[in-house]
Amino acid sequence: MTIAIVLLALFGSAWLLAVIEGWITTGRLSPAAPLYSGLAHLGRESILPRSPDRVFFEAAPVLLLVVAVLGMAVLPLAPDLVIADLGTGGLFINAALAYVLVAVIMAGWGPDGAYAMIGGWRFLGQLIAYSMLIVMPITAVAMRAESLVNTAIVGSQESLWNIVYQPLGFVLFFIAAMALAFRAPFDLPTAEGELGGGVDAEYTGVRLAVLRLARLTLVVTLASATTVFYLGGWYGPLLPPWAWSLIKTLAVAVSMLLAGRYLPRIREADLMRWCWVLGIPLALVNIIIVGLLILVVP
């Protein structure tokens, strides 16, 4: 029962996110638009490239979707609403999301196309850099909770959310989440203006539908992780715990979409340099600050 509820919440949130994305893009609010788009993709021919690596090409969209679902499996929506409350849940999130890289590299290599391959290798450098900004803020969060259990991390925020306790960590984690989901302005693997869609370019029909669902689901999973680690998870007045988790998750996911509309795309060289030169030192500073706060403030 728990599995069904969490999956329903995950894909329902992805549906709402697709509706909101369409509203932001076109100015028209149509709850049925994702259904029409999905049916349109299902009705189109799935064209194969001339000389693909068929295993990589077929498996990449499915793997990306599986990764997003696996990440959500350890994120609690309520104290008793989590599929697997692992003792190393915080690290499991980072380990599961590492396979986003595998899926995107497969999507770039599989079609045997120049633009797709460039997009895949771009994401390789992007994730190697920004994965550090996922695991290092999680380290600071676990220090305060004295646990890597995600329900314990939420419990440690009952009196004060981590966004207030360690705002620098929140900013770094949010930026890294956008980079991991390759949302604009971190959409270097797709970059329609430069690569004509990049890793998405060679996918059509059902495969493209699965890939787009996987990308939206990944955004929801990362937004849920942000909620668990920094926004107090299920804590909030009046409404039931699961409702607060979903509201916060959707708010974070929508903010990711909106940020991409108002920020310019960054050159890949600058994107890497800013992370290594600025992001990682700031993440270390955040860990030091949190450590000092734990020692000084009882």
Query: What is the number of strand segments?
Result: 0
Biggest sheet character: none
Domains counted in the coordinates: how many?
1
Tell me the Rg in angstroms. Answer: 19 Å
Main location: membrane
InterPro entries: NADH_UbQ_OxRdtase_su1/FPO
Membrane topology: Multi-pass membrane protein
Transmembrane segments: 55-78, 90-111, 123-143, 163-182, 216-236, 242-263, 275-297
Protein described:
This protein is an all-alpha fold and 298 residues long. It has one domain. The chain is 71% helix and 0% strand. The chain contains 13 helices and no strands. Helix 1 runs parallel beside helix 12, helix 5 runs parallel beside helix 13 and helix 6 packs antiparallel against helix 9. It is globular, with a radius of gyration of 19 Å. The N and C termini lie far apart (40 Å). The model has no long low-confidence stretch (mean pLDDT 86).
Please summarize what this structure is.
It contains 13 helices and no strands.
